[in-house]
Amino acid sequence: MSCCSACGQHACACGCGPLTRTPLSLYNRPGLDSLSYRVGRYADFRATMQADLSDASLPALSGLRTREADDPSIALLDTWAVGAEVLSFYQERIANEGFLRTATERRSVLELGRLVDYRLRPGVAASVYLSYTIDQNSGPVTLSAGSRAQSVPAPGEQMQTFETAEPLDARYEWNAIKARKTQPVEISVDTIAGLDTIWISGINNNLKTGDRLLFLFGEDLAGGVQAIRLVRAVETDAQNQRSKILLQALEDATVQIVAAATKAIGALEFSSDGSNRDFWLGRIEKIRADLLLGGSNWGSSNELIGHYVSDFNQDNNPAAVTQFLNDVKAAFGISSPSSSGGGFQFLFDALIAPPTLQPANRFQLVRDAATALGVSSDTRPQMLLQFEPRLRDTFYQAWTSVSYGNPSPALKGVFAMRVTASLFGYNAPKQITLTQVPKDGGGTTTTTGYTDWTIDEAADVLSLDNAYDGVLAGGYVAIQRHSNDGMQEIETTVAQVQRASVHPRTDYGMSSKTTEITLVDTGKGTTVGGAVQPPIWSVPTWDVIRSATVFAQSEALTLAEQVLTEPVGAPDSSDTAPRQTQDDATHLTLDSVVDGLKSGRWVIVEGQRVDVPGTDAVTAAELVMIAAVEQSQNKRLSGDTVHSTLVLANQGLAYRYRRDSVVVHANVVRATHGETRNEVIGNGNGAAPMQTFTLKQSPLTYVSAPTVDGVQSTLSVSVNDVLWHEVRNLAFAGSAERSFVTNTDNDGKTSVTFGDGAHGARLPTGVENVKAVYRNGIGVAGNVRAGQVTLVTTKPLGVKDVINPLGASGGADPESRDQARRNVPISVSALDRLVSVSDYAEFARSFGGVGKASAVKSGAQVLVTIAGAADAPIDPSSDLYRNLLQAFQRYGDPALPVDLSVRELLALRVSAKVGLAPDQQWEAVEPLVRAAVLDRFGFERRELAQNVYRSELIACVQAVRGVAYVTVDLFSSFDRETLLLGFEGRDKPNNGLERSDAPSLNAAMLKQKLPLNEVLEAFIPVLPTRRDPDDPLTILPAQLAYLLPDIPDTLLLQEAT
């Protein structure tokens, strides 16, 4: 380049010479996303060359004075300007591609990563649990590992292939096991007062509301207990030919007193405490008997006890009596709790409740010898069959058909009292009497009077008011009358019929047919303890004849098994009703005996949830592992048979299900996304170093694993049928080691490279001797919904269907350019070991399937928060979550507790008015503004605990071409609690900020000297992992704030007019 003829300086540096534009400055300040590395553009090059035509130092060009474009000389300059333009353009592109921060091509980032031995994460295959259905006519079926099933794609999707990860032994009996739905009714003296339902056989029992049912306990009436309950309603089950009898409820105090009395009687019968034990035993038995037969509880403890005992405040009362008196007092203080709705918060909390964390596999299951080898365990009958192999085909069938258990304590029977009658003479008029009364003046006069007839009745004999042919010998009657002491208390006597006859009777001034009932002699006239026993029915008075009611014509009812309505799962702590079963979150009783299920086996429990407030329309499924199987029966239930009970691992079931909807899928096996390929990939040549072959199918499947990268390849390579091993770098392989490395290019194709004899062995010469077995298929496409995998591809004899009751999870796409750009520097900082707190965050972020991670120290614990790649959901039961925790222990301090949680989402909401530059159209500018904002505030560009600033938003919008200015009308965020309050018609003040936001807000207020409302408008605080200020034991994950691209209305853009 020449110098200026006027000043002698460089022509491009002075201001007095010819006008030159090249070379442009190549200075770039730090932190730019792209480099300016062009020495000039077409116009610059052309202008510079034209200016040089007039340079005085070039006299040979002084004669060239034309500047017309059609002149050949100017055309030549134009050609060179175009060439320089092209060269400078690609020079700038090459310069940008040479730096990690500015590279625009994924391949450039891939190659730059290889310089530091970083490989772009290949993605992770999704995992799912498949439930197979076996044909009814088939025997046991074994599905080998690698059995294939495919999904039915929804519109816009492609079919995905899954293969089982382990063998599965399947049977027809394990297809869809039901939870136990019926069991014999438990009716005892302990439960009769609180009993609300019984089931009887048949649907034509002619029972109606108000009918009385007589319950007899004990072998005879004298030494037993009787109870009468009234029918509230009758429901028939025609399909199962049985009826559900709903009983009228007794008062809460009555139920409590009966329970207290039964407890006291049991204690007194085996006690010698106190001199008045026998007295109290008789009194308490009388109290219980009267209450069970419909007597009054007198409304208070003093009146109740005082009616039966004149002085109950005695110093020498037995301890059981003192406890009984205290229980009676407490019974009258019982009040039913009022129920109140929980609001939308309770509904949402129930819906998002996570399933319990189960063991990763059967090898991680913690087994308990007491459970595995207990008296009720299925291990014992299995061991018995080892001693007696001949019983294998018949033992379980015979064992389960035998009824066990003693009858319900002393329950003799349940009887419907078909007849309600009065005693003969109840409506008899009084006898007319004529009396001669002397007159004052002499003589007499006759006056008329009325008097009761002379009673002509016998003890233990009843005469009813009409003919009742259904009253038979051996039946029972219940006589209800007022007490003999003139008080209004109702007393009921139960007796058995010895004889019954119908005949005419004329007495008490009336005549009609009567049913004469002779009651069974219960020992009247005998002496017990020095006292003569009275007859069961004494000669009545006229008050008794006129007021007594007799319930007769007893008909025995055949009890049926009760339908269990108790939910499956953990009992509701607020439910005070008596438990029907012994099931809980970790115990599930099945509808029959199921043999062959082993501990460590996966099952899926599916059904309609009843723990969601206000609805039972939510269907859910849970994956749980069997810890043990028990074969047992409830010995308290009369006629109960053996049933299988699943003992579930860890905390068992997280939800409660409606019992009749529960299905247990036991033919369950884990499967992963991908399809197995067997292919010959090439011919070995001993003379060729570093032979490379490319797999024909892509992408190669990687499954989640507790490795440094978080993934493990499914590729297996053999040469001459000898297995070779994959290494990360051949530089560290010995000359004789059968090793290879893999490389995946930008198109997802994987190549296999072998050694050169110095670093890794060369391939032996052969024809088609290099073979590969691998699987292809990966990414979020494998995260299919529940019920989509229904096509059986590998179908052994006996396999009928397949389905995935739970959705697939854990699938992640290969690492994108921007993800790799952030992760490459991290790969050289952790170096496969975890020492500092930041190492945990960097290690988690480079783990396959994880998009973002942060870590903080809290005491002796490390709190790690992660977000899935592309913010894909991460379930605590997923392989990714389990393997990351396991990798923390493997590569870090195994004694250091690590708490792993998934990010808390803050959904940004923005509304802005955009002013346009002259001649700009809103229809053309709005998509550009929206794309820029979604990119700048999208998931990929935000970090955990990164605050969001209003100024950041304004700068982003104003950087878009065509925008003149922007006015932000709304700048805030939604958290989950804010949304929940909105469903209840409420909102959180202060933009939905919590007390835990105070440090960020206070710091900003002090620094900027601004009031709270202006601070809230300036930025949105996004919090790191921390402890809940209201509950220090609860750890809150770090927050992540970004705009949701799938909900357009969270970003409202309007043209400013």
UniProtKB/TrEMBL annotation:
It comes from Dyella choica. This is Putative baseplate assembly protein. NCBIfam families: putative baseplate assembly protein. It comes from the Bacteria. InterPro entries: CHP02243.
